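INFO batch 0412 | record 1 of 1 | parsing
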Amino acid sequence: NKLTKFILEGLGWTGSILVLCPYVITFERDIDFILNTLGATGLLIVCIKSKQYQSIVINTAWIIGGIYKYYAGS
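INFO prediction complete | emitting tokens
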């Protein structure tokens, strides 16, 4: 389905941009956490759909690590 492919492509690009933004721009801790978590989640969805197992592992670790860092630092 072309619509599904289009949505997944957009989700992947959006996720990539959201993950990279905190490296280019300095944000508050909460915004940094939200951008990284949403970005990695978007990438994870694309990776699951396309069965990219290595990327599934790294994006899952990115999400878990980000959540741990956010709540451990409170």
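INFO post-check: DSSP finds three helices and no strands in the chain.
INFO record closed
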